[in-house]
Amino acid sequence: MLVAFDVAALLFVALLVALAAWQVHRRAYKLDLIERVEARVHAAPIPAPGPGRWSDVRSATDEYRRVFATGDWLEDRSTFVQAVTALGGGYWVVTPLARDDGTTILVNRGFVPASGREPTSWRPGPKPATVVGLLRMSEPRGGFLRMNDPRSDRWFSRDVAAIAAARGLGDVAPYFIDAERSPGDAGLPVAGLTVIAFSNNHLVYAFTWAALAVMAAAGAIAVNLDQLRRGWIGVRKESPTEIQS
């Protein structure tokens, strides 16, 4: 029975140690990711990927990269995506930007409160417009427990494919751009509200798993020592009987 217990305890401790090591590995990956994203965010903007590169755009290599694009706003095809920001609740204004090559990029022009949804209250957009911002990947389906409903024009995430289909857009980039705020920008929409945050609790998790491994090992050792003690006491009790016989 003790042998089976020891084998199970050994496997359990090994599992906990493996989990601790995995969290250390995850922490190294997360730190590298944060460093790479910070470098992209503060780099000089580059042209937004064109159709020849669309199939190669990946979150790991392109998201949060500063890009720029020039075109004409298709303001009558804007989409309002529900949002909660540091400014309160309201909407992201996602407007197609039609480029000279016949392609379109969806641009998150910024935030408007519920009372500012009417475009006549916004600052006039330049024609043509040059947008500088962060490349973001599409957000399929919807938000947490809230699915996009194109038929009712209710949007909870910036799902590029679904928005493009609902607005009858043609050749649309598989990503969108979060416009950044330019110096002197005022009025609506309020750009530059992108939140870049990566949770990095892996070191805490690693210590937790390691502590549990130490506790489990200590418990197993305690059980084995107790069994040895009981066996030793049993031998001592039997010794007088053996001598009398």
Automatic annotation (TrEMBL):
Its main location: membrane. It is found in: Cell membrane; Membrane. Belongs to the SURF1 family. It holds the Pfam family SURF1. PANTHER family: SURFEIT LOCUS PROTEIN, SURFEIT LOCUS PROTEIN 1. Keywords: Cell membrane, Membrane, Transmembrane, Transmembrane helix. It is a multi-pass membrane protein. It comes from Microvirga terrae. This is SURF1-like protein. It comes from the Bacteria. The chain crosses the membrane at residues 203-223. InterPro entries: Surf1/Shy1, Surf1/Surf4.
